[in-house]
Design brief:
mainly beta
Length: 497
């Protein structure tokens, strides 16, 4: 099957630093390492693409392909710049560029669509920080921030808002860490209001497309600034959390709902995930695009019990546990390290860590993870299993996808297309599952190709699909000097001409 990316600026296929033709001659290894070995371009309007090159020996040669693509070294020789001409041939075309260093070589496959082939656009947000970005509920905007270091080792952050319909980019700052120490872009509204956590002052800043900044507020009497995690499509509702004034260590964390910018407390359950006293608190984590359903976590140590509210504004009732139909709580006796026994509860139930956008646009489905636990020998710890699961708020039933162990439910659409992250910590790949037929739809990359006709990297996961299905947000792992980081990407409709 032939696969073509209607991508534009950047590459469809991103392969992390792969070695090719590694040859040993006279005790010296010759190699060519490229950041990318396949790429695709739109028929016109493309921006040059930079590919990082590492070789041994350091000197390398380029064998060009067809004349419609130009391959040039940067001044430092560590980057290869690809520039393509507009495609007026009326047909798709491809060529191969070869990079050679000593006895080693590596090919770069370049594909280009025709001018009139406009299916979807794929963009990597590799200028965003390692914490990635956020997509607005309708997909109109994506937002995040970049980071820079000056000659005095001072860090600066630049908030960025991209209009996916026009391609227009709004950049503000840069702001020094002594003003705002930006750490994570959590949410952006369809009106272009971006919420970014501030590690220096606590809480968040909110910045719009004009660059105006304000600081979200918690209800009166709260000690700390709030964190807004998600918004409804119309911007009427924001959800998040803040720590209050009472109790030890600043008191409990409370879930919050903002209605037209005014904060209100959401009610909590009387007991935590283990049917014991709440001692840390509850966080509201997400809201459906239509504003009908809110979900959150009972953040008790490492429990992360997942719950949800039916949104009724100021009159919202107490939440319920996600996966209540499969939830089992049993009192047991465990032991401390010194042999002291104590009573607690083991739980079979649904959990959620800090991932956002776990709910479908209408609130019909919630992506979750079903966790079981059994005391290990000696009763000092639990043996845990985790399986992706998806909860239907309309039928109040849970589908546990036990074909995939040690995995997690990442996202789900209203029509029951579920995205499963392989692994429970540091998701590296994903598969797609049809909850209606209980069948696998293949890898994430397969599903994207079948749905949008474009190629994306095999690694990573999808975190959001807009209500109309035309906008997709995801992340891919990339190796860096500090270890593995995640780069955001999106798929959106082509820009109208």
């Amino acid at each position: 099957m032939k696969r073509i990316l209607s991508g534009g600026i950047a590459a469809a296929m991103f392969l992390l630093s792969s070695l090719s033709g590694c040859v040993k001659t006279e005790e010296t290894f010759h190699y060519v390492k490229l950041s990318q070995v396949a790429c695709s371009f739109d028929g016109d309007g493309n921006t040059p693409l930079a590919i990082t090159v590492e070789t041994s020996p350091a000197a390398y040669e380029i064998t060009p392909g067809d004349t419609w693509v130009k391959a040039e070294k940067s001044e430092e020789d560590n980057t290869l710049i690809l520039t393509v001409a507009d495609n007026d041939t009326g047909a798709e075309r491809s060529t191969v560029i070869t990079v050679t260093a000593g006895s080693a070589s590596r090919e770069i496959t370049v594909q280009q669509l025709t001018r009139d082939n406009r299916i979807a656009r794929y963009r990597k947000l590799d200028t965003f920080s390692s914490m990635g970005g956020a997509m607005s509920p309708s997909g109109k905007y994506v937002g995040g921030f970049s980071e820079q270091v000056d000659e005095n080792n001072m860090w600066y952050s630049t908030p960025i808002i991209i209009d996916t319909e026009t391609g227009e980019k709004h950049e503000f700052g840069p702001y020094p860490q002594s003003l705002y120490a930006l750490t994570q872009a959590n949410a952006i509204t369809d009106q272009g209001l971006l919420f970014i956590s501030d590690g220096y002052n606590g809480g968040q800043i909110a910045i719009d497309t004009s660059g105006e900044i304000f600081i979200p507020e918690a209800p009166a009497g709260y000690r700390f600034r709030p964190e807004i995690q998600a918004t409804s499509a119309d911007g009427k509702y924001w959800v998040g959390f803040a720590q209050n004034e009472s109790g030890s260590n600043g008191g409990l964390t409370h879930p919050l709902l903002w209605i037209d910018g005014v904060p209100h407390e959401l009610p909590m359950l009387d007991l935590n995930y283990r049917d014991e006293e709440i001692w840390v608190g509850v966080m509201a984590r997400g809201i459906s695009a239509d504003g009908s359903i809110i979900y959150g976590t009972s953040w008790e140590n490492s429990d992360f019990g997942m719950l949800y509210w039916v949104n009724n504004g100021e009159n919202t009732a107490k939440p319920r546990w996600v996966g209540e139909d499969v939830r089992e709580v049993t009192e047991i006796t465990m032991q401390m390290g010194d042999g002291t026994e104590y009573k607690t509860h083991k739980v079979y139930g649904c959990i959620c860590t800090a991932e956002l956008t776990k709910i479908s646009p209408s609130g019909k489905w919630i992506a979750t993870t079903y966790r079981t636990e059994e005391p290990n020998e000696g009763g000092m710890s639990f043996s845990i299993t985790q399986t992706p699961a998806f909860y239907n708020t309309e039928t109040e039933t849970t589908i546990i996808v036990d074909e995939y162990s040690d995995s997690t439910g990442m996202y789900v659409t209203d029509d029951g297309i579920a995205f499963i992250g392989i692994g429970t910590l540091g998701v590296s790949s994903a598969v797609v599952y049809d909850l209606n037929t209980r069948t696998s739809l293949g890898s994430m990359a397969d599903w994207v190709y079948d749905t949008y006709g474009i190629i994306i990297p095999e690694s990573g996961f999808i975190s959001y699909v807009s209500p109309d299905g035309k906008h997709v947000h995801g992340s891919m792992p990339m190796a860096s000097a500090g270890g593995v980081t995640y780069v955001s990407w999106y798929i959106v409709p082509p820009i109208a001409k």
